[in-house]
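Lab notebook, bench 4. We co-purified these components, and the gel suggests they stay together. Before we commit to crystallization screens, I want a quick structural picture of the whole thing.
Request: model the full complex, all chains together.
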Amino acid sequence: MIPSAFDYVKATTVDEAVAALVAAGEDAKVLGGGQSLLPVLRLRLNNPSTIVDISTVAEIRTITDEGTSLLIGAGVTTDEVANNPLVKAHAPLLSMTAETVADRAIRHRGTFGGSCAHADPAGDLPTAAAALDCEFVIAGPGGRRTVSAADFFVDFFTTAVGADEVLVAVRVPKMDGYGAHYEKFNRTAQAWAIVGVAAAVKVEGGVITDARVALTNMGPKPIRATSVEAALKGQPATADAIKAAASSAADGTKPTSDVHADAEFRSHLARVLTGRAVATAAGV
Amino acid sequence: MTDTLNETMGAIGRPIRRKEDARLVTGNTNWTDNIQLPGTLHMAFLRSSIAHAKITRIDTSAAKAAEGVVHVYTGADFPGQPGSTCVWPVTDDIVMSHYPVICEDEVKYVGDVVAVVIATEKYLATDALDLIDVDYEVLPAIVDMEAALAEGSPLVHSDKGTNRCYTAPVPFGGSYADVKAKADVVVSRRFINQRLIPTTMEPRAVVAAPMGMADEITLWTATQVPHVLRVLLALLTGIPENNLRVVAPDVGGGFGGKLQIYREEVLAVLLARKLGRPIKWTETRSESILTMHHGRDQIQDIEIAATSHGQILGMSVNLLADMGAYLQIITPGTPLLGMFMYSGIYKMEALDFTCTGVYTNKTPTDAYRGAGRPEATFAVERIVDELAAELGMDPMELRMKNWIKHEEFPYTTVEGLTYDTGNYEAATARALELFGMDELRAEQAVRRATGDPVQLGIGISTFTEMCGLAPSRTLGALKYVAGGWEHCTIRALPTGKIELVTGTSPHGQGHATAWSQIASDIIGVPVEDIEVIYGDTGRSPYGMDTYGSRSLAVGGQAIKVAGERLVEKARMIAAHQLEVSPEDIEFNAGTYSVKGDPEKATTIQAIAFAAFQAHNLPDGVEPTLSGEATVDPMDFSYPHGTHLAAMEVDTETGKVTLRKYVAVDDCGVQVNPMIVEGQVHGGLAQGIGQAMYEGAEYDSNGNLLTASMGDYLIPSAADLPSFITDRTVTPSTTHPLGTKGIGEAGAIASTPAIVNGVVDAIRHLGVNNVLMPTSPQNVYRALKAANNGGAA
Amino acid sequence: MTHISATVDGTHRQGEVEPRLLLVHWLRENLGLVGTPIGCDTSNCGACTVLVNGKSVKSCNVLAVQVDGAEITTIQGLASEDEWHPVQKAFKECHGLQCGFCTPGMIMASVDLLSENPNPTEEEIRDGLHGNLCRCTGYHNIVKAVSHAAAEMSGS
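Here is the predicted assembly.
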């Protein structure tokens, strides 16, 4: 219940945060909303020597309309992502997914960027980000760089963000004209997803012309169900066609077994839930 | 739920809003962790992360040198000192265990205590734990009960030569073998009544301090049993009982988990005395999940024999009960508390009962809401459904055919209990009316016919239980060390206010309100003028505390007798003052009046003042006005009811949803129906929690896998529906107030109702059992096994 | 040590704190506001819920240094001097509590929910409170209490 002692740096700008991380070395952690980090600290699963607090850095707390995309600051709360009109209009998959994260109190402080940077394989927002082909803006001592979702998520709790870097913003392509749904399957309302499926589907004239499908907790990081996406394209938006395409949802995944579900059951769920998520997104 | 004041009505029976709530809704609380005494030292525990190991070396030097650390203790500092004890050696040849206050040379479960840090601040005490270096020699972990009993198994207690704690064979009635021989149908099932974690919202907490008189140690602790604890602390520590005061301040739920003597309590008392300073410890939730005792954990092999017409002839019950690593207060007795309930509400000729307690390298088990009776009720209500399926009978029809009819009470069951009253017909009729059985059965048929992925099932539980622990002679016959009486003192103070001192020790049940209602009716003083005093051996010296739905069933009787004694003493004084003989005095609603001359009257408040003045008392009557009683109950009481659940099962994902739940309970006379209903709701949530969500899981090395609230899932508001509840009222005839008990009924009844409903939903797919909790994984496995040609 | 100041239940409070000090420990141990209890160490139970700048927050899941300059309301600051908050009244009226340990968090979470959704359905109440665990009531009367409070607050 009590974190180990650490040095604390409150950054007021991104540059200050980067400078603090450089000074602190390998063993520092960035604190945003803290909703993923604080439990880790309390249980002493990680005992960083320095905490760099970016929770009051103003420049990472805004949502900007860039025309064909939205730039969501890493410090924007999950609650705001769930309720912001721009996000709801142009990236409904993201706002829907945000609504399923934890509970109201956690959403009030937890951030979209923090959830992605934490990269829990059972996290919901990383899956939505993967489905939407988001881009991640990362600031480091050498300036800023942009990383695709495919490259951002690396492994269990591991991302492309280096020890001396800070995730600044996530660029979310506008997905106008797509239906969206996040199917979260958990045992109780506050439990982590056993499996989750994020789907964004474009239907034109009764035919699926594009589909983005990503899976939560089916491996060490969010996984795009590429064979399902390929199988859906050009198919009629019907229950049978979607079910057939969803049958390959678990292909290439590496789910773990735990107390709530074994790997075989997770694979089964991925197929069933992918069918449901796509059908709902397609309005079937 | 308007509290309509009916002047002709007494306080009993009214849904009076609780006196307790004003403090609780404003945060003006007295949890043990709120206590901050000057000079307090904080305890922190280094706990074993290995289920079974020899401690080969402990180095505490770095911890001792750390900032704020006053002492670090290991087992070597307390040789032979027990940290808990068992007061219920259930058989003559039971294998007892020694539960060290700190492990000396061996750890026996994950969470066992290896060392204790005492520091000036809580944060520093926690920090020092990381500086203690322990070397272990890992021993084989004994996790599975059947493997533990096998020849050549490694041993939890190597000096005992066996992992078998006890075997208690009890044949009830005639010979089960004989009735089985004449049966047309025999159905056997193995049920797993999984291990549960009580999960009181308030974790345990202790503060022990040298306070008050010389040599006195006061222990504030989050306990259900301050009185029992004081006796046991004295016996275990050697501190004279009259130097110990135990206080249970506001206690945030118990459910059996705080019916215990814990090593942290023992250690706090010992160290407060040794160091002469307040000692404080509050467990974290992670510690709580590992070390508050667990509940249930039985393998139940059940067999039922019946005629082809559905007459139940007998049952055989063979239990393996997991004790965990050590015996605590009533660890071995807990499964036996269910021994008398396996026949449930049904008539039968024979019941063979055998229970074997088994040691494993897991957290000790003990009482958890219902304690033995939920396990029994689950087994009988599940096997009756299986018998109905085997016979092709409607499960309610089979129940009706076999239950004790209301005109047959009092009825002596095959286990030898005499159920005083009951009306299963009435409760069932009301439940069916509220449930809409016909519509649901019709919907079920449609879903089956159309192959709907979401199937509907209907679960029934017609249950009874035994409340009111307990007639002391019965407890003695069962080898329980203590009695089952309860105490009450009611004092009328000079100003007319009342102090009601009870030996019950509430932790959410609303005794302050309900006991005031009972006393108000007996002594005729307004509810708001009565203060209930409890949970402090200094202020309420006699008591047997709160568990087993005993508080009203036993404590309520003591209130009645104490109140009547007070009224009788006051009658003597009233008669003297009104200058008539006591027989000529009428007492009604707090007023003593002369028969036939109602103008000539006085009040109980006036007499309280007169007793204080003592200027004008009759000869032989002592000053002060009070009544005192210690009551031993004449028998148990037997609440019953009918619970019905409509369950949806998504056959594609295994997800189970509780759609509708009806509970009609009969707890006899209700003192406060609002509180009764609240008890039902909470019990239901815990019973449904067992059926659908909860389960402590260990891996083969004895690691608890459900070691946080993130993995041990208790239901939230979003995981439960609103409940439809009602009561029938069949007063108990063995209890002077006609009350029974309601604290555990919901938890006892609901678990089989849910599982019966889940199985009913998918029985046509070849399933005849689903393991608890009925999680998606477990439902999926059951369906898959059925698909592969065999039932799960 | 880091200096922080905040308005807690309407009173200006300040102090030097270790950066690792949890907000709930600052409230309980340093400020003596023990009305906010601690029920878990994984931010599941919600017993420690308070309002920070008007929004519900689990105070075990925030560092005290992070609330520097904030306005905090705990269960002990919810009532005005002479009147309880309607949610407090409703919890008593509807028997929405038994042991009372989850109650401070449950009430604060309910106040937060009603501030965003003044007329929630039963389903919205259940979903809105799923971050707060109760082991006594089965939630039945908690849901009733929140509905009751909503009706009282909207004057219907």
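Chain A touches chain B at residues 1-2, 4-5, 43-44, 185, 187-192, 194, 258-262, 265, 268-269, 272-273 (CB under 8 Å). Worth comparing against the SEC data before the next meeting. DSSP finds twelve helices and 14 strands in chain A.
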